[in-house]
Amino acid sequence: MYVNTKEILEDASKKYYAVPAFNINNLEFLMAILQGAVEKKAPIIIETSEGAIKYAGNGNPLRGARFFAETVKNYAESLDIPVALHLDHGKNLEYIAAAIKAGYSSVMIDASHEEFEKNLEITKEVVKWAHAAGVSVEAELGQLAGIEDNVVAKENVLVDPQQAKIFVEETNVDFLAPAIGTSHGAFKFKGEAKLDFERLKRVKELTKIPLVLHGASSVPTKFVELAEKYGANLGGAKGVPQEDIKKCVELGINKVNTDTDLRIAFLAGLRKHLSENEKEFDPRKYFKEGMEFVKEVVMERLEFLNTAGKA
Ligand SMILES: O=C(COP(=O)(O)O)N(O)CCCCO
Ligand code: NA
Ligand SMILES: [Zn+2]
């Protein structure tokens, strides 16, 4: 069934487990993720960036948002697990409006690169709009390092727990992404991963709402090596250690954003299949191995986060 993201995350927050939010840009990733979630009898959050909407809509936000909303709703209504669709890193109000209009379950307003007051004001506005349409809202405080689509966050600006309390009270936002040291992409840490667990604990105590971990891919060595065996160059790829993710969930993270892990798994499968099947030219066949590897990563994460069996 197609549900509101808040329903899924409230249960997770109450019972201290987490739900992965997997990014898609096409049908193949959606099918692989849903197959994994059905097999694990788990609720699931599908999310698209603004870039994915631009891609599927060939530059037209509403066309792209409708493509994903209608496809995901269509699949969700035929399945007996809860499925939500979320706009990830909404920065452009045109895209946020398109996602709300198309029927997304929730939207993120990411104004964390703005000053605190500005972020608060923009988020308040989006919450008013979204709630009027029955759509829940995620916001972000602090900045991840690395590239956030079109915004390069120069340094890790970690969340201020006191500010988080005020922000949540004033904006009535449904869930919050506190920056605690992660970053997006496959090259997350120069040296050792260092997440600020104490800071996360304080944010949960002070806000008491579902929390989101961005940049949560673990970059599994198995698929990095397999992709490289078949010609990829991912030298130096490094993700968040699994034990750090587990600790974040124990401290109150309930939505775990995962994009890079699926991209690398699919890439490994595609490269392997193409190099072993030089005569194959049916995309329903040569995408299959990549989809199998995506499904494998999905099922592992659902088990690891204790989402399995919670549908
Ligand atoms: O926080 C995340 C997941 O980040 P990652 O999967 O790179 O760790 N996202 O918001 C997904 C989109 C960012 C670009 O990858
Ligand atoms: Na941000
Ligand atoms: Zn993110």
- Overall number of strands: 10
H-E order: HEHEHHEHEHEEEHEHEHHEHHH
Characterize the main sheet. Answer: 8 strands, parallel
CATH topology: TIM Barrel
What is the mean pLDDT?
A: 95
Strand content: 15-25%
Number of helices: 13
Q: Based on Cα principal axes, name the global outline.
A: globular
Give the name of the CATH superfamily.
Aldolase class I
> Which hetero compounds are present in the coordinates?
the ligand O=C(COP(=O)(O)O)N(O)CCCCO, sodium ion, zinc ion
- What is the highest CATH level, the class? Alpha Beta
Detail the poorly predicted runs. Answer: none
Radius of gyration, in Å, reads: 18 Å
Q: What is the rounded distance between the termini? A: 10 Å
Helix proportion range: 40-55%
Structural domain count: 1
Estimated structural class: alpha/beta
For the record, the CATH architecture stands as Alpha-Beta Barrel
The neighbouring-strand order within the major sheet is 8-5-4-3-2-1-10-9
